[in-house]
Every structure is written in structure tokens, then in C-alpha cells.
Amino acid sequence: MLEPNPLADLTQANTLALRAQAARLVRLTALTDVPAVADLPGPVFILGGGSNVVLPPQMAGTVVKVELRGIREVASGPKGVILEAGAGESWHDFVAYGVARGLGGLENLALIPGTVGAAPVQNIGAYGLEISERIVGVTTYDLKAHVWQEWTPQACAFAYRDSAFKRAEPGRWLITAVRVRLPHRWQPRLDYPDLRQHPAWADTPPTPAAVFDAVCAIRRAKLPDPAVLPNAGSFFKNPVVDVPTYRAIAASHASLPAWPQADGGVKLAAAWLIEQAGWKGRRLGAVGMHERHALVLVNHGGANADDVLRLSEAVQTAVRARFGVGLEREPVMPAAS
């Protein structure tokens, strides 16, 4: 039975450690309780690991903390092994589960904070891999129509840091499980320089476990641990611009990192733009952009959502003034009461 906890403190439920309180908090631990979520006082906000949200001081409606657990192998065929995980499982633990069993395919996404259920919403990606390349199915409950639904990868409409779930009306879809296929014929994904040039490959060919360890080491060296310095990971998307805009910037900035896209656009490195605009390592009150990675917004202590918004808007204004490029925030910002 779902038992709402009134006036619950959410400060430790978001990786930015923003001061926040829910009018009602429900911890969802059993599949049998999922349909009852639709009857909770709204609006309903679905919360996973809190790694991609900017919570306001007072949350409206009911916050549902998804804690559905369990990882299992559901099928094995010519194309690979299919693993399923409950939406409340730690994403990193899910990656480690496959690697520990000799199954490659997710290791480039190691150490990404958050839960399995949040992964398809954001279409998480790192080091040349997006989760959309591995997902074969997503189970949801429609809180509006009161029905269960199975999603194919096509129905999820994945795009760069985007999906049908992210574009839907807030609180519509409650993801309960995600299934991925890990290929039998594994090939390492070492396109990014940090991985391609990693010293581990000098003596031995890469394995899923070795790539997993390398990704973890690289991320720990570059990115702050949210448990030590609160943050929400990459705060802005890498912007995609048209070719004339790219050429105009590259003409005076030869070091501009850029990647041609299938649709004819060019993806630029948001971290580079932010650093060039003078915001790497710079603070604005209690928040700032990290000194080692300009894309990571950190909470130095006692910050709230307004502090985060002020800083993000200042960074956006500076990048637009310098390069004529707009930056889009990645984290979700739920409504305040």
C-alpha cells in the first residue's frame, strides 16, 4: 500500500543537494502498487536518482520516488543476451552486472549517476555510445489512461539527449523496467580520444571489463563525485548548429571541437564554449562551473533552484554573446507549489 509521507525533505534526494521539500512523498517499491500512483493527488512528479533535476524549494503535488528493484536475464538469441532491470536500480550497478558476467555493450556508460528508469528518458550517452543503441524495450504505466504499455525502441523516438518520454506531458509515463540487448560479438567502442589513447591498451587488447575500468578512471579524474561536491553532471547539451555557423566560429577558433551530424548539422562541445566564454571554474554565489570540467554545474553549499537558474542563465548569455550559440539545459525543472 502506498503511504504518502507529508512535508518530506528532498535535499538528499537530488545530486545537486538543493534545499527542497515535497508536499507529499511516496516510495514506490512494488509493481502491485504502480496503478495506485494514478490516484495520488497531483501533479505527480516521478523521481529516480535525482541526478538530472533542479528541484524547487517547495514541490507541488506528490513526488513518487521509484525504487523498483531487480535485474535478470530474460532471453538469449543469435543477436545477444537481453537483460531487464527495474526502474529503481542504480544505472552504474546495472552496467557492472553485465560486465561481471562477461557481457559487453554498456561499459562506455559506466559511472553515469541515476537510475535505470531515467536512462531512456534522457537517452543517456557517453564516450561514443547512447543507450538507445542497446534498448530493446521499455515497460511503462500510463498514469492518465490507467494502462500498462510496452514500448519498442522506435516508439521511444530517441534523439540526442531526448525521447518521447521527455517530450510527453509531465507525470504521464511511469517507467517500471528497461530491457537492453548486449551483443555476443562484442566490439570495443574507443572512438573518443580519452579512451583511444588510454595506456591500458598498450599491453593487452581491450575487454568489456578493461573498458569499464578505463571509463570509470577517466570519469573520476574529470568529474566531481556528487557525494563530495554536489552536481548534476553535464548541465548543458552540446549544441547542434548549421554549417555556416560552425564555419564562422571555426574561422577564428581553430581548436573548436566539432562533430558532423547525420542530418547535416554540426555538434559543438558545450564545455569548450563555456570555457572560452570565461566560466570554467567561476562561481556565482553558492554555485559555479567546475574547475576541471566547464560543463558541470556544482553546488558549493546551501544553494537553491534560483541560484542554479541565475548561474545557468549567466552562462547561456555569455556563450550567446561570444559565439551566437544558444545552450539548452539538460536537467528537468519541475513546477513549484
Quick structural gist:
This protein is 23% helix and 26% strand. The protein has helices at residues 34-37, 91-100, 119-122, 153-156, 164-167, 193-196, 208-222, 243-250, 270-276, 305-323; strands at residues 5-9, 21-28, 44-47, 58-66, 71-77, 80-86, 125-126, 129-130, 135-142, 147-151, 173-182, 231-234, 240-241, 258-260, 266-268, 283-284, 287-289, 296-299.
Description:
With 337 residues, the chain is of the alpha+beta class. The protein folds into 3 domains: 5-66, Uridine Diphospho-n-acetylenolpyruvylglucosamine Reductase, domain 2; 71-182, Uridine Diphospho-n-acetylenolpyruvylglucosamine Reductase, domain 3, CATH 3.30.465.10; 231-323, UDP-N-acetylenolpyruvoylglucosamine reductase, C-terminal domain (Uridine Diphospho-n-acetylenolpyruvylglucosamine Reductase, domain 1, Alpha-Beta Complex), CATH 3.90.78. It has 10 helices and 18 strands. The strands form 5 sheets. Strands 5-6-11-9-10 form a 5-stranded antiparallel β-sheet. The longest helix has 19 residues, at 305-323. The mean pLDDT is 94.
The third-level CATH topology of the largest domain is: Uridine Diphospho-n-acetylenolpyruvylglucosamine Reductase, domain 3
Query: The biggest beta sheet, please?
Result: 5 strands, antiparallel
Distance, first to last CA: 26 Å
Unreliable sequence segments = none
| Series of H and E elements | EEHEEEEHHEEEEHHEHHEEHEEHEEEH
